[in-house]
């Protein structure tokens, strides 16, 4: 199944700010059950003991030995001696981003992935209004206490005990500790263990409070106040999957944390108190929506403004101006998942699958998935936006997303010669990983037709006669010449083929009798003539002279493999293209031919930068010789003439500006799949129209743009024209007999690659 990096478990709404409330008139609301006298005394004594302990810890900086009996908090207090005084703080979970690079060198965001939408920022990147709003409303004595505000805790205990609104009295540092502990729970991959951990660190109990006090004091001893406040604003939740002040500013007000105005900052800090209640992304809410000016949030916001005025964080003039400013969120939905990359979604999907398989992200797939979604990586890809736009545009113009009675697919993939960098990847579908959506229409799919099954792709398509170039390579590699002829007449019994891996192979009992697309007799074709005319029987005659195992091994040396992961078949039929392969594999192979026989494995990532700014080594291309340069030069000689004098003339004639090009066409049995694959010395491109499921005879089908069977010859030159204009193209070394012009029965395409007759 394709891997969806945006799916996965999320912990129930993580608490962030003063979860119990701070006791102001706007903090919380609702019916409070009256307590009995005994209950009041027990609660009062228990929480008061915690307050006393907290005071002792703050003033003395050591853990007192407390021996009290008959109090509800006794057992909790005795654990002080064994509690750790330091909180190990892991990196904050941050979103990871995938980018393309624009022509001016600036990054263009394709998609983001996260469990928590967070962008960690520094002190100077946070508005002073936001910092002051948090202190004034959550912890006015933040810069005075040592981690636990004993005065505030005692006040909260008294208010709660006598039946007032439930109070927490937690300092900013205690809230920070709680959020860190919650985040540690969220890193747990086992859902049951994750829930248990979450319940333990969020339960309303003296034990939890005492632990947080001890840890808060340890944090205060190790970190400066400003660092604690900064990280509190980075870790705290702002509703849903929005975490941290920067992501909140982006999401709710389409701005940055540094640029927040006073009323915006107070409005966001209001959300911290109770994210579910005060968040601003439900305009239809009857209590806190657009119709009433987000009344609940505004009330909390105005309270915060009054507290800021009270503690002299703002002037009276600033207060009046901010209080009269309406709450008007400008929601900017974050980029989440590859669907936001639009036409480049399938390339994005390919990138995420590469990351899933990259050991740099962890020891196994599950770990890599979590690290990617939480690690705050910036992934800079190889995508060329000019070629990508051209690929998307030409597919949209030439192949519909749906066709009556036919599950039609179309792909365009481009690879840079000599580097393996994937420059473009598009198809004629809308990307979705939601099975409900994909079930509604054939226009949607989460399957990438360009790539292998293990990389989120399909199980491949027969490449037809484009596969014949590997028999040509083996032919030249074993010392045969382009002008050498073979017995290529159509036969019912081809006899025995040599196979050094499996032993001699004979197909006569199968009555195997492949025909040529235009009915050519094929009596005595040369290798060059068979290549230009894409003569099936000519290549079968060449294979009869060669070694089927050798042909398969030569194809593998160019990086060709079955998309489903099975070994390449090496029968006589496979010579003319019956193995199901991914279009990307064919683009890589043709790039290898254009690169003087050196094939470079595909890569889609140029750079990876971690959240700390350090470079992470990206997956690298491996370049290795597939054939000798002289063999590649012979292939180039033949394949250039396929463009100018053979079955690919239509693509050649529509490509502008002209640079030296090589190519090969492919049509499978009955016109089910049609391919055009070719390259300059700079870029290799595949354009194909395929049958995703079922079968169709493309030669009897027409789209709005023209015949389905020739759509490849409209798409390929469109993309390669952009590539030629941008990258140019050099002369490629050629070795061959003197140029010849061989009559071809159908200059548009006369290659039917499969082993059955085409009627």
Automatic annotation (TrEMBL):
One GO CC annotation: outer membrane-bounded periplasmic space
Recorded source organism is Cryobacterium cryoconiti
The GO terms this record gives for MF are: penicillin binding; peptidoglycan glycosyltransferase activity; serine-type D-Ala-D-Ala carboxypeptidase activity
Query: Which residue ranges have biased composition labelled Acidic residues?
Result: 748-759
Q: Which UniProt keywords apply?
A: Carboxypeptidase, Glycosyltransferase, Hydrolase, Membrane, Multifunctional enzyme, Protease, Transferase, Transmembrane, Transmembrane helix
BP term (GO), one: proteolysis
**Protein name per the record:** Penicillin-binding protein
Query: How far does the signal peptide extend, from start to end residue?
Result: none
Q: Where are the transmembrane segments?
A: 36-58
Region Disordered, annotated ranges: 1-30, 730-759
What reaction is this protein's catalytic activity?
Answer: Preferential cleavage: (Ac)2-L-Lys-D-Ala-|-D-Ala. Also transpeptidation of peptidyl-alanyl moieties that are N-acyl substituents of D-alanine; [GlcNAc-(1->4)-Mur2Ac(oyl-L-Ala-gamma-D-Glu-L-Lys-D-Ala-D-Ala)](n)-di-trans,octa-cis-undecaprenyl diphosphate + beta-D-GlcNAc-(1->4)-Mur2Ac(oyl-L-Ala-gamma-D-Glu-L-Lys-D-Ala-D-Ala)-di-trans,octa-cis-undecaprenyl diphosphate = [GlcNAc-(1->4)-Mur2Ac(oyl-L-Ala-gamma-D-Glu-L-Lys-D-Ala-D-Ala)](n+1)-di-trans,octa-cis-undecaprenyl diphosphate + di-trans,octa-cis-undecaprenyl diphosphate + H(+)
Penicillin-binding protein transpeptidase domain sequence ranges: 415-694
Record lineage? Bacteria, Bacillati, Actinomycetota, Actinomycetes, Micrococcales
Tell me any Pfam family this protein matches.
Transpeptidase
The Glycosyl transferase family domain sits at 111-308
